[in-house]
Amino acid sequence: MTFALKDRGMKRVVVIEDKPNELAEIGGVLKERGYTVVAECGDASKAVELCKKERPDLVIMDATTPGARSVLAERLLLKQCPSAIVLLADGMRDEEELREAISAGVMAYLTKPVRKEELIGAVELAISMFREFERLRKENEDLKNTLEARKLIEKAKGLLMEKEGITEAEAFARIRKISMDKRKPMKEVAEVIILALEKKNN
User: Fold this and answer.
1) In terms of Cα–Cα distance, which of 61, 180, 172 is closest to 72?
2) Does the pLDDT of residue 147 top 70, yes or no?
3) What domains can be seen in the chain, in order of their start residue?
4) pTM for the whole thing?
């Protein structure tokens, strides 16, 4: 079973595998499906720097590669270079390791030996899940920024109303006019107003 990607542009792959024959096999399967292995490494402790340099869409990593567990335990890959991660789970021998991998951001895992269709299915599932994860992350970030902006604007309105004896509608209209005249977001205008008026109080 395979999963169709909505965005066929996500094709850059870094492979972390210390076994040359398996590395060659993985590379061959990926190439057949139009993916490009932009870098490969046999030591997971070097994976973070490699991924920061190459900025791949996907990382495929063998769990038995030296340094793999520490990289996952510290969630370094996802923190330093966000990308979809597929783990080849030959070395996953207990549930604790599996939970560790999932919490580190692994989107899919496979038990070796890996068949061609299983690998491509896992790759496309991982990329699809990562895209959804990024979409939700951005939505949450946008919501957080919106709420923060609203709080600042409310505070700026309150200060203007108190200091200049104007109504809430007039305070809001003034912030909006400054925003339009200066071509700056209302949040930035509110921050300046708050800073200026609070400084007068001190």
Assistant:
1) 61
2) yes
3) 12-139 (3.40.50.2300), 142-201 (1.10.10.10)
4) 0.65
